[in-house]
Structure formats: structure tokens, C-alpha cells
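Annex B, item 7. Sequence and C-alpha cells for protein A, then protein B.
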Amino acid sequence: MPGSTKTMGALTVGGLVMVTAYTVALGSNGWLWFGWVVLGLITLGMVASRST
């Protein structure tokens, strides 16, 4: 994987950790989860475009 894709993967995983911690500490926030899903889809798109 190129560097930019690895960076996006790391940001996606880090985002998941932060959103999960926020949910545990303060309760669920739908917008945070929506943002994380969008970030994950962008990351998957980057991975898919690199593999073709």
C-alpha cells in the first residue's frame, strides 16, 4: 500500500477508537458515527482504486 493509503487507514482506525471512546464516555452521537462511516468508505475507495 502506498503511504497515503496507509495514512488514511491509520486515521480510520484512530477515528474508530476516538468515536468508540466518546460513545462510552458521553453516549452515542449519530453524526460522529456517520462521519466515521464516510471516512471508512473513502479509505475503502482508496484501497480499491490502488488495487486495480
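Protein B:
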Amino acid sequence: MALAEISPFFLFSALFLSSFLSLAFSVLIPSDVHLHSTADFSHTSAEKLIQALNLIPQDASPEPSAVGSPSDASQNRIVERRFRFPGLSDGVSVDDLGHHAGYYSLPHTHDARMFYFFFESRHSTKDPVVIWLTGGPGCSSELAVFYENGPFTISNNMSLVWNQFGWDQASNLIYVDQPTGTGFSYSSDKRDIRHDETGVSDDLYDFLQAFFAEHSELAKNDFYITGESYAGHYIPAFASRVHQGNKNKEGIHINLKGFAIGNGLTDPAIQYKAYTDYALDMGIIKESDYKRINKIYPTCELAIKLCGTSGTVSCLASYLVCNTIFSSIMKIAGNINYYDIRTQCEGSLCYDFSNMEKFLNLASVRETLGVGNIEFVSCSPTVYQAMLTDWMRNLEVGIPALLEDGIKLLVYAGEYDLICNWLGNSRWVHAMEWSGQSGFVSSSETPFMVDGSEAGLLKSHGPLSFLKVHDAGHMVPMDQPKAALEMLKRWTEGKLDDDSSSSMKLTAEM
């Protein structure tokens, strides 16, 4: 993170935290725990921590003044167009595709515009409406469009190839660049940058109201919220906001049926404690490392508690203190890909997503999408920095009320992800207090079968389900696309534990 990108507030906080951490480390962390110095930690380890929970931001971010046609998105309305990407095979017409891109001028902001993709279901407009949120914080949902569960993937020659396991096979699918400043979303006013889940979820709720006003034919369809990584924060807050809006009869009723979190960060206190257990179980660290690094956790736990009660500066402190656990593991692990420990990290993203950036920065593509001259950036350092005070907050607390009202939750996780590992996710799901907790805890684990093979292990009780996905890392739809689509289809149909639908035809009909 370049010095020029750091706000005066963050600099002030960093100075405060430098003293705080020195005191915390000297008083609370035992002397036999050898860590980087504070200076070395905040400089050398920063990039690894920025990558944590999704992809590392680039140094550039879009300039609002460079935007062309998105300025038409005014007066709190959606400006949307049908489009057909250049380089898409099969010669399908724009009208036949049902692919849309648009901007929405967010009403409770100074000048913010939210960019989104909308892909109609390949089979029926009566299919559920599913919104996908990528994490980061500050990473664009286009990462999912082109590499996970979107309608197509990008070839090396910049042409597009149909994805037969895209989630538009089973849903009307929305991808949103959020919070403001992410991907193609922008504002000319820095006051529109969000710092907490209230601002993020309010903006998303305003967008949904406008979307369903524009697409009234879909307003009564079942609606599901999905996403991964830092969206483990976004999704519960957004689901609660939609549920609250429905109860208060605000605007259009949204037929919220469920929400799904993939390899997410939701309850940091539980999930950070699981880091060393997962790393030891997977052979990343030794028993001696395990005992030494675990001595950091009481300080982390205290810092998280202070974040929950004291606010901004203590939340930044907890972020830095707790991430020494992760950075200590990574110092031992070396160059492994912490999104998929079976592989080595290659490049700043640990994956090569350069084709997406090349494609989305093509003049022909920008013209097709109506984004003017704005430069696409995979992950925004500005958004990431702004949300640091949100990082260690517990978003599990709002989930029980949703479960009690019958809104379904699916938590799924690829087994080879370190950064948001399945073990930590399983633990917070099991520890969550709600009326069905004992029933969930005592329920048996069953195989999740796809095409006659075990694709994962499933545990369900009432509206709550947890799925450990085999042979997958952080990005489950990328690593196991067929199993991920099968998971979505069965879950939205209320048949997640029924393998009779595993023979469904997954054809790329257009």
C-alpha cells in the first residue's frame, strides 16, 4: 500500500497503534513468541495482509472525472442497456442473450454510481433472482463473472467461451461492484466511501429497490444473496437490511428466501483462533510452532472485544494484532497459495487474472458496457483501507433472527483454503445460538453427492446448512464448478440433502 494512498486519519491511527502495539506485544505476548518488529510487520507484512480474504489491490483506482456515459445515471434511477460482449462466440443476438449492464445513482450519497451486471436465466425468468457479492473488501464482482460462476470465461486471445456451469443456468443472476469505489463503481466525492456494514447494506438495498422497479416481472421471484470471502461481512448485514425493509413495508417487497456465504469471514474471534488448528492439521506448521503462535491469541481476543465496544481505533488495533497470527503462519509456510494450499502463490494475486483486466480495459468492451473511459481495477486499495475498522466486527450476531424467521442460511467452504478455512467457518456455525442450535449440532454429516461421487460433506437442520466442499480452495465455483452449480440449484429448490437431482442436465443452451 503506497504512502500516497493512506489518509490522514489512517496515518494518525497508525501512529497511535504503533505505541499501542508496542505496549500490547511487550505486556500481553509472551517473550518466547518471536514476531517481526512492529516496523517490519507494518511494512513487509502489509501486502500479505491486504491480500487476505481476497485479492491484493492494484496501485491505480478509477478517476470519476474520466467517466463518460455513466453520468447519465442521475436522479436516483437506473440506466441500463442490453449488451453483447465482443469476442463472444455463437453469433447470438443482443436481444436473445438477456445480458444487461447498468449504473445506478445511489440516492443517499453525494455523487455515487453503482455498476452492475444482470444476466437473465438461460432457462426461465421464473427462476430465482440471485445476487453475488465478491469480498476484498473492495474487489470487483467481475472476478466471479469471468472466473467462477458467470456465463462465460476468457480465453488467452481475449475471446469468451460459454461456461456450462454458470449460475445463470439456474437463476437470474446479478453481480454488483460494491462498495462505492470498487470495480467500475465510482463517486466524485470522497464522502461516499463506506466504512461499515450499515452504509454498505443501505446502498445495496437502495439498488435492489431500483432494480426491481426496473424489472418488475422479477419482483415476486424468490430472492437469494450469495458471495464469498469478505462478503461474509456484507451478506448477513445485507440480508438483515432486506428483512428489515420487508417488515417495515419500505418500498417494493423483496421475496428473500435465503443467503449463502462461501469461504467467508463472519465471526473473527472464532475464525482467527482456528488458524493454527487448521495449519497444524494440514501440516503447514509443526507442534512447536502451534504452541508458540497460539500465545498471541489472548491478545487478539482482547483486541476484538475492545473493537466491539470501543469503536474505530481499537478495531484497527485488533486488525493488526490478530493478523500477526496469520502472518506468523505464512512466514513458516513460505510461498504457498493461502487461497489453495495445494499450490504455490504466483504473482501478486496468487492467481493469474490478467486476462480479465486486459479484457475489461479494451476500448470496445468499455464502449459496450457504457463505462466511458473509466479504467477497471480488480481491487480498490481505497475501499480496502476504508473498511479496516469493519474487519474485526462480528457479523454472526444478526443471523439468528433471520433463521428464526425461516430465512435459510448455507455456509460452504472449500477444504484447501487457509485464509477463510472450513474449520473456522464450521466452528462459528456450530457455536451460533438460536432455537435450532442443539438440533444442528447433533445432526449427522451426510455425503453431498454429484454424479455418483462424494463432492463434499453436508450438515443441515431446519434453515441452516454447512457444506465442506472437497477438492476446492477459496473460490469454490472456480475449483468445482459443477458441484457449485448443483449446490445452488438444490439449495434454492429446498433439496440440498437430496442427491436425486444430481443427474440434471447442465447444458449451455442459449
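Comment on protein B: Residues 1-28, 34-74, 501-510 have pLDDT under 50 and may be disordered.
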